[in-house]
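Example with several molecule types.
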Amino acid sequence: MQLPASAKEIDTRTTGLRATRPAAASHARLWKLVGLILTLIVAYLLPLGLSNYQAFEFTQVFIYAIALLGLNILIGFNGQFSLGHGAFYALGAYTTAIMTTRWDIPYGWTIIVAGVLCLIAGFLFGLPALRFEGLYLALATFALALSTPQILKYFDNWTGGSQGIVLDKPSVPLGLPINADQYLYYLTLTVLLLLFLLAWNLLRGRVGRAMMAIRDNPIAAEAMGVNNALYKSLTFGVSAMYTGIAGSLGALAVAFVAPDTFNAFLSINFLVGSVVGGIASIIGALFGAAFIEFVPIYAQEISRAAPWAIFGVVLILFMYVMPTGVAGLLHRVLERLTRRPSKESSADNVVATSPAPADPGASSPARAASGKHE
Amino acid sequence: MVPLLEARNLEAYYGWSKVLHGLDLTVEKGKVTVVLGANGAGKTTLLRAISGLIRTTGEIRFDGVRIDGKAPEDIVRLGIAHVPEGRGTFPNLTVLENLRLGAYTRKDKQEVRRDLDRIYTYFPVLKQKSNSPAGLLSGGEQQMLAIARGLMLRPRLLMLDEPSLGLAPVVVADLFRIVRAINEDDGVTVLLVEQDAVGALEVSQYAYLLETGHIVSSGPADELRQNDSIRKSYLGY
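Resulting structure tokens for the full complex:
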């Protein structure tokens, strides 16, 4: 394992320079670890105190979080835009719907197949996308989003056309003492954790550095020996894989797929969640997912007439208060908390608490901001 | 006279427009060679052509092997480090991450770690700031980082694109001293591209003069420094 070693290196290197710095750094790490463990305990106990509908809402948050993480990897860490990830979400969803209903294949396998299919589809889409930069790529992917419902309707002997496909809800295995909604909650939570771990592992090392190098300065990245074309296509594939797995889980959770639920609005909603959560952040995907799941629901409660106007106002407020997303704000709060004992100048503090290279999960404001411009 | 890099009749294009017109150029092993020229002369293009970043015709040989037409990543693997114009660091990555990217193509982790320590002795400030984003460094520090990152490849040829650009004269003098030390102590061959003729001619042994894509003059650096027309147009005295 490469990362812990490098993190240690940094600590020992800085020891001689400023006595307070390693203490602050290990403090921050401790805080993060405690926070993570507490969150996990809460996450696994939570469904016991929730209604079935609430459990479903959280399941949906986890599903969106996986989709958003895919988008974050693409936009935040690699600097490529997508306004069309709803298409990959749809591909994943229909893969599971068709495989489970037509061929009676156990749903667990279909999740994997959905991931692999989207990985390939994303990679193939990434190849021509290499010719587009920034806004042009955004438009090209938006075209994908616009055409998705029509394409689904066109292949109606596979997709069931406008009627969609009704799935069976996965039954609880092994006679576990939980109901179907709780089971879905645990299933998606577990997949989420696995995929977050995979992303963290991928982004913190050599691959992640190469991806971010392309985002920051493509020519220099190439001059370092990074194969830009391959990396950009692969990143597109991995990103699509995440979103496709989310789509597969989404089909299982809702137990129904229909073309018009995979419209362009879904893709835009993903982008909203991605930016609100913190675009160059792993953990930000969770906050963004909660935003796009709950804010429309509460907006509906506030005003039945114009829920999207409320949603818009809340969105603007979020962007105003947290220009680097929820993850960016959290990161700064954590900095503040762990830095208080030291009396360094503010310039030094920036240095002392800047994210360790080993920690792509912590989105620095600079990183989050850069993602938005590219 | 052992040539490490040779370009013969090198032409390079951006789209349809030709920027280099049949260049002949030799970089001797173990020496510092400088290419002087004004803005738009084609200096950056020359380095990009060698790195395989743009379309070229003609012949480029590195250590006797043809490298023209090869992919940039393959050329890097041969040991040619390119420190791009305007520093080209990755602003949102930390200093350490930037340096590790320099060793992106290397598999010998132990040696990479050793080289990192060695490079920190050339650039102590980078060690102090190893954990801060490169974007927060000063201009001089960023240039040092860019050069250090190039060295992390353990290159046989280090190509520097206008390291003096936008830096205070004191910092430039410092940089050139380090470049010389790298060349003398580690035996790294250097191809330097510069507008700052005074400083560049001092660190280098051989010089080329590039004007609008043509080499108009070349010779040992000492001789060029004595040359009247060069003194007038480039050295300003």
